[in-house]
Amino acid sequence: GENVEQHPSTLSVQEGDSAVIKCTYSDSASNYFPWYKQELGKRPQLIIDIRSNVGEKKDQRIAVTLNKTAKHFSLHITETQPEDSAVYFCAASTPGFQKLVFGTGTRLLVSP
Amino acid sequence: DTAVSQTPKYLVTQMGNDKSIKCEQNLGHDTMYWYKQDSKKFLKIMFSYNNKELIINETVPNRFSPKSPDKAHLNLHINSLELGDSAVYFCASSTGTLQNYGYTFGSGTRLTVV
Asked: Using CB atoms within 10 A of its CB, is residue B73 exposed (0-12), middle (13-18) or buried (19+)?
């Protein structure tokens, strides 16, 4: 089955810096890669996603890149703000399996 | 209107008890899920139902029994609760084509077994 690895497990940055979180997946048939943000005590919420026919997607300060050959994808947050502090999860979905397999999460701390 | 709602939000109970968690979605989604988030924040799928039919049953102890009376509801009943069952349980839903919209999660149920 699909396996998703995520790094780093924790990431501390100063406000205004960029943050990058990386994930690798095992099943080359996976074709959908969402990212979720989970604030303390809250539910995970979808912040951006990418499909396998696209190499990069941007939404204001966040972007996701996908390298199908290497089977990895990354989340990039620019001009980080304290409210970006949260746990971020990557996930992957394989056609026919109808489920998301999540990475182990990255705790991002943005210091003012 | 809350899209995916879970009750209760908090549940504290003693070992050996039986408890249920309820989930309802008003998004018209076909598929609903239960995920367990442990103390290290790892999200692991437990069950999935599509239009009231069980389609995913991961390696979960048979003390856990899901029930879907209709496609808008998915409940989770847990028998003989153990300390290791303490976690946050999230319900989620998606359309039939998962790749279009991903999941919408409920607000979670924090279960503490003492």
From this structure: middle
- DSSP-derived pairing of the beta strands B109-113 and B10-13: parallel
* Chain A residues with beta carbon closer than 8 angstroms to that of B50: 98
How would residue B59 be classed by pLDDT, with cut points 50, 70 and 90?
Answer: confident
Q: Which two tokens stand for residue B14?
A: 């003693």
CB-CB under 8 Å, A38 with B102: no
> Do residue B42 and residue A102 have CB atoms under 8 angstroms apart?
yes
Q: Are B102 and B108 in contact (CB under 8 A)?
A: no
**pLDDT tens digits, B87-110:** 999 999 998 665 666 889 999 999
Q: How far is A26 from chain B (nearest CA, A)?
A: 17
pLDDT confidence bin for B58, thresholds 50/70/90? confident
**Closest approach of B98 to chain A, Cα-based (Å):** 6
